[in-house]
Amino acid sequence: MRLHLTACALVAAGWVAAQFQEVQVAVLHGKGVTSATLMGTRGAMAVLADGRQVGELAPNDGLRVALEDGRIVGRSLSATWTARERITLRAASGGGVRLRAVVPKLAERVYSGSIDIRRAGAELRFVNEVKLEEYVAGVVESEAGAQQAPEYYKLQAVGCRTYALANARKHAPEGFELCDQVHCQVYKGRATHGPITEAAQVTRGMVVVDAGIRLIHATFHSNCGGETLNAEDIWSRSEPYLQAITDSFCIAQPHATWTLSIPKAEWLGYMERKHGLRVADAAVRAEVLAHEPQCRGLYLNTTRPLVPLKQVREDWKLRSTYFTVRTAGDQVVLDGRGFGHGVGLCQEGAMEMARRGIPFMDILHHYYRDVHLVDLSTLEFFRDEGQ
Ligand SMILES: [Zn+2]
Ligand SMILES: [Zn+2]
Prior knowledge:
- By secondary structure, the protein is an alpha+beta fold.
- The chain folds into three domains: 24-130, Sandwich (Tumour Suppressor Smad4); 134-216 and 373-385, no CATH class; 257-337, no CATH class.
- The protein has helices at 2-19, 132-144, 150-166, 194-202, 231-234, 264-275, 282-289, 309-316, 347-355, 360-367, 376-385, and strands at residues 22-27, 35-40, 45-49, 52-57, 62-68, 71-75, 80-83, 86-90, 96-103, 109-112, 114-120, 123-131, 178-179, 206-209, 220-221, 257-263, 323-328, 331-337, 345-346, 372-375.
- The strands form five sheets. A seven-stranded mixed sheet has the order 4-3-8-11-12-1-13.
- It is elongated, with a radius of gyration of 26 Å.
- It binds zinc ion (ZN) (2 copies).
- Residues 223-224, 247, 250, 346, 349 line the site of one zinc ion.
């Protein structure tokens, strides 16, 4: 039995490693593209129709693709290729594929690896098959830009690799693994900023797991205002690694504070209507007009009916649930701290830690409790051993 388990574990580890050397990402996803032009950035590209090589696209030539009578048709200066299911363009070694949507007109993107042009109803679907580390670098550049410190890029790289691995089955019924939109992770093609590609390589294959060797949900928000929340404070589920912590790194950052004025009558009317508070009562009224939390709480008041801060944030579209309430004339003034739900990693705090040269592992441990970095090729092995 023991032998059998170990054999399974090794097979599983091999599967994961093989599976995640490359990822299939649907790009320009949901844009309704019906026509596009593709070109190589360097050298000739191999052209495949329904998986069979049918020719080459010369370095200075382009391929215009569209659907005609239910078939995918690709036209270059020198040839026309048609396919029932897909046309694939494979970039030369070290090169990329330039993809420009013509209908609708979209900005050009450059991708490493290959691009598969598929039929998706009356539209075209573009699937970029790309090495995992190149995808990770692309996501980090799309999400973090080029202004961050190297340790922040490493932190982001392990975060998006972990996410990619945990969510690679999200689009399985559609025939690819991840999309390039916020739904999965924003990916605008290959990274060009040196420190970002370096961060992806330095952290190659590393993912973040909890004490039970499960991939973590690397939850993050913009700025916690000085204190994060427990996962269960916001969502129904608690996670041992998503625990409230105090954070001094973000309190001088761009989204540390906010202010909002609301007419007093509107605020009181809302409390009465939505939460059933008897605001004619002086004590009830006093509580919702002067709220000064010493630390993050879950409710605006202390006597029933309780007013959940989460609901107040949603109804008034507040930046956070962390705020004081005071009055100024006929207005109620909310002085708030932070931006976002407040669970997990505080991005502006993490950026500041990275700027101070704090190693990314220490940043990770500051925001997530009892987590570890492991190589993804050993992940399934650990999981099976633990059963
Ligand atoms: Zn998606
Ligand atoms: Zn913070």
